[in-house]
Amino acid sequence: MPMEKTFNAAEAEARISKLWIDQKVGRAGANAVPGAEAFSIMIPPPNVTGSLHMGHAFNNTLQDILIRWHRMQGHDTLWQVGTDHAGIATQMVVERELARDKSNATRREMGREAFLSKVWEWKEQSGGTIINQLKRLGASCDWDREAFTMSGNFPDAVVKVFVDMYNKGLIYRGKRLVNWDPHFETAISDLEVENIEVKGHMWHFKYILAGGETYEYLEKDAEGQVTLREKRNYISIATTRPETMLGDGAVAVHPSDARYAPIVGKMVHLPLCDRQIPIITDEYPDPTFGSGAVKITGAHDFNDYQVAKRANLPMYRLMDTRGFMRADGAPYEVAVARAREIAAGSPTNENEVDSLNLVPEKYRGLDRFEARKLVVADINAAGLAVTTLVRTVDEETNSEALHLEPVVEAKPIMQPFGDRSKVVIEPMLTDQWFVDTAKIVGLALDAVRNGDTVIMPQSGERTYFHWLENIEPWCISRQLWWGHQIPVWYGLNLDVDSFTDDEGDDALDEVEILNILGDGGYVEREARSHCAADSAAVAEFFRDDLAPLPHPLNAARVVEVVDRHAAVALLAQSLADYNLSQDPTHLTYPIWRDPDVLDTWFSSGLWPIGTLGWPDNTPELQKYFPTSTLITGADIIFFWVARMMMMQLAVVNDVPFKTVYLHGLVRDAKGKKMSKSLGNVIDPLDIINEFGADALRFANAAMASLGGTLKMDTQRIAGYRNFGTKLWNACRFAEMNGVWEGYATAATPPTASATANVWIIGETAKALAEVNEALKTFRFDTAADALYKFVWGKVCDWYVEFAKPLFDGEQAQETRATMAWVLDQSMILLHPIMPFITEELWSTTGTREKLLVHTNWPTYGLDLVTPEADREMAFVTTLIDEIRSARAQVHVPVGLKIDLVAMSLSAESRAAWDRNESLIRRLARIETFAEGPAPKGSITLALEGATFAIPLAGLIDIAEEKARLQKTMDKLAKEIGGLKGRLNNPAFAASAPEEVVDEARANLDAREDEAAKLRAALSRLAEIG
RNA sequence: GGGCGGUUAGCUCAGCGGUAGAGCACUACGUUGACAUCGUAGUGGCCACUGGUUCGAUCCCAGUACCGCCCA
Predict the structure, then answer these.
(1) Residue A148 has what pLDDT?
(2) CATH: 3.40.50.300, 3.40.720.10, 1.10.287.380, 3.40.30.10. Which one for A958-1025?
(3) Nucleotide nearest residue A466, measured CA to C1'
(4) Which ipTM value was assigned to this complex?
(5) Cβ contact A794 with chain B strand, < 7 A
(6) Using one digit for the tens of pLDDT, what is the confidence trace for A386-438?
(7) Which of A68, A457, A755, A833 is least surrounded, with the fewest CB atoms within 10 Å of its CB?
(8) Cα–chain center distance at A749
(9) Is A690's CB less than 7 Å from nucleic acid strand B?
């Protein structure tokens, strides 16, 4: 059955994709020769909730190109595929799904266990979407090894790493100011916060000095002239977040700020609150900004937090997990009384400070933005706003009036938003788990500095260094349910420090038991904690804690309960039972697990070893780790690349990958970020449906120059679809000429005698060398460009045309063999970039031992290039180009055959002519050929080593031909001028390398030779008219 | 404010010491033994600006302007 005119991508891709998957062409080690070197790539695991976007398509195309290239070379390849559980994103999706049906219970109503089983259910149903989309793209992963960060050995690996790092002191728990997402009610890391400029306001408040004090406030201009002098009883502060003033711990001014020097150390009344705070100095306030005085709210601002720590100020938390003003704890009067005691020096601790709710009653329970409005209104009402005189005119009476209005500046402010929730992030003082990154960052920096891991483009290394050198502790706990739960358990601290053994039986008596349970007793103490892989292992630690305690506590059974509340209840129950029964065997010691889960990036940070079976020393781990190359977006260099480096080095003391290839974000044709709101999202599946996966892949490869932005243009994709069609039709032409009959795959080219055949074999070798070199250096664009130029520009534009007359001559047989081989090589070389169309052509042409995906990558070298053939073909193609160009310029109709006269021919040109006459005649549309002088009314063509004339008496417009020649002369003159200028400069000959000088000289000779021929032609024209 | 990068044909980008290339778009012509998802010929550029280094700079260095991205 003859081939169709075009490749039917929609039909063929599905069929070929199934074939590859059924035959497991991408399984680890497929097509590897014995003892082959390993080549491995870890896919950046897409979110299990996700679907394929252009970024994925781009990223995975590049990975697949490398994998296919190495696999065809017989290397032992692994492309590890899988998905990420994506804590927040997945929890969000499942909650949203549940909310669609009002009859469903909410997450909180159904509880942790039931919710998690819903998430798993959802994952089973829709988690495979993106994997199937990768298959449509043609990705040749090892599908049987598909991993998931919540399945298989991954949970164990994550827990083991946590425990190890905990034991090494690399993970700690602490109360820190973290980014709090009030929507998801969890901490998030710095990287999950997007700072966006929004319209905001700056309010100015007066904090009145305590004790009726006043001071002289002076403002000076740059020359030191006093511009303002007034007696003040207040200090003016500016804020964009008025509601936080309720938690202020101080007002800070810069130590060099002379305006406030008289009042540093004095107290001010905190408006709306019944307490006083000090005026302190700190380097943080900028004296030139606003009033130069800053209110310090340590629990709700990152800068203030640092100031508060330096000045040892209490940090009062004002909000709850949803971002509402606190409504818990003691009444305001009680809390504020205690705060005053603390301010006066009463000893306290972090936990007590955190437990004090200093939100006055009227603001309690309000949303933070509601509270803001109310605080502003109340301050205005109290006359504590900084005001300005405003003149108004009454329209009816036309009378002017002056009155004071609060100063509120409208100004853009940077506001933090959650990258998932899109709500305003609240800095919040909470207990969280941290990785002490400062302790593990060193190895990660060194590995890149000493080249164990190479990041490209190199600018990526600079970014990497800059971030790691300034790294902050990594907050790894999330108050979510979907994720790896932190392997830390807590138990009540029952250490009995005042035990008196009245009975001499070394056992607790009833009074002592009551002490344990009683108000303010042991159960109120801070809990003990232990970290271990599971509850059985952790129970050992708690038994060790219990061992030194008096009977019967030392014999208590350790049991796990849900939380501290349940633990206290169970312990009480248990002790009460004991008191009656005196049977210690029933005594239980309850422990509970930390409810938080780990940041998703903590587990994906272990992706390279986790997917290879670690902590078991599997054969895959030995073979494929460290992995060869990581291809990922530059936007996740911090999230993921740097963390994988730190984690792998900390855990297995080896780099996770040898090369990191970073690429930019895929944008639309205009360079805009693709976003749903802009409506400029291009769905790669739509592109595949319209143009085929190969066209998309080729476009991706061609765009992949190092460092640039990636602008996706469907017109360009269409162009590469056309490129596929071009190759298709070259093969179809071959088929129509019987080229494939009896042809079987051959590693080496056929012996050829016709110059065109010899030449194209050499061009094929050049293309191979270029593709190899380009892919070796990750220049996918160069590889694509070289293939495009070879297949279209050499094979189709010239070779196929040359072959047509050759098919009729004595060299028909070798031409068929050569064409088959060249097209074969084209399929092979293109296969990594365009796998579908090439696999399809492969199966419809010739006799094949293996699928193309497993066909051996060629190894022939540039020795196949024959310089004589190159020169000869250069003469032929130049001559044809010149004739065509001349014909077009003097408007010779395409259909008209012309005569050609050779005025002069060098020996080499004559030989070239003789061997290729039929090609030239055909492609330049020549009727007759003769040697001799130019007939009258000819146009002239000057080539190196030859001059030709085309007699066109009566057909040509003399003036037009003159203009044509003059134009060529002008171009030549410009070149000659430049070359002469250089050669006449003595410094050039003296300083430039010899070959450059020689080349310039030879070039000048050739140009002058051509110019002379053209001058002669012009003078001949002058004779005519 | 800090860091990284960009500025080359109408558009999107390569090139990065020997006076410019591709694809697309555009113009004219065109169905010759594969291909109109095509062919042939063509139009189009003080390589942002100012200095410096060099025999020679789009390319290296410094500065300026403008534009991105990331982090505060």
Answers:
(1) 93
(2) 1.10.287.380
(3) B3
(4) 0.94
(5) no
(6) 778 777 777 777 777 787 877 877 777 778 888 778 888 888 888 889 999 88
(7) A457
(8) 43
(9) no
- pLDDT digit string (tens) for A873-920? 999 999 999 899 888 888 888 888 889 999 999 999 999 999 999 889
CATH class of A31-170+436-486+600-663: alpha beta
Nucleotides of B under 7 A from a protein CB: 3-6, 11-15, 18-19, 22-25, 29-42, 54-56, 68-72
Give dist(CA A550, CA A169) in Å, integer. 31
Tell me, what's the pLDDT at A88?
80
- Domain A199-414: give its CATH superfamily: Valyl/Leucyl/Isoleucyl-tRNA synthetase, editing domain (3.90.740.10)
Decide the pairing of beta strands A234-239 and A193-208: antiparallel
Report the nucleotide nearest the CA of residue A990, measured to C1': B55
Which nucleotide's C1' atom has the smallest distance to the CA of A889?
B41
Give chain A residues 865-894 with Cβ within 7 A of strand B: 881, 884-885, 888-889, 893-894
A980 touches strand B (CB under 7 A): no
CB of A439 nearer than 7 A to strand B: no
The pLDDT of A40-46, averaged and rounded, is 93
**For the segment A700-744, what is each residue's pLDDT rounded down to a tens digit?**
898 887 666 677 778 888 999 999 999 999 999 999 999 998 888
Token code pair at residue A287: 């004296």
A921 touches strand B (CB under 7 A): no
The pLDDT-based confidence of A678 (bands split at 50, 70, 90) is low
Q: For residue A434, give the H/E element and its range.
A: strand A426-435
- A637 CA: nearest nucleotide by C1': B70
Q: Which amino acid is at A119?
A: V
CA distance A499 to A553: 12
The per-residue pLDDT for A123 is: 87
The domain spans of chain A are 31-170+436-486+600-663, 199-414, 489-593, 958-1025
- Under 8 Å between Cβ of A811 and A96: no
Burial of A867 (C-beta count, 10 Å sphere; 0-12/13-18/19+): exposed
Which residues lie closer than 8 Å to A472 by C-beta, 6 or more apart? A190, A437
Cβ of A805 near strand B (distance < 7 A): yes
A255 CA to B14 C1' distance (Å): 56
A706: nt with nearest C1' to CA:
B14
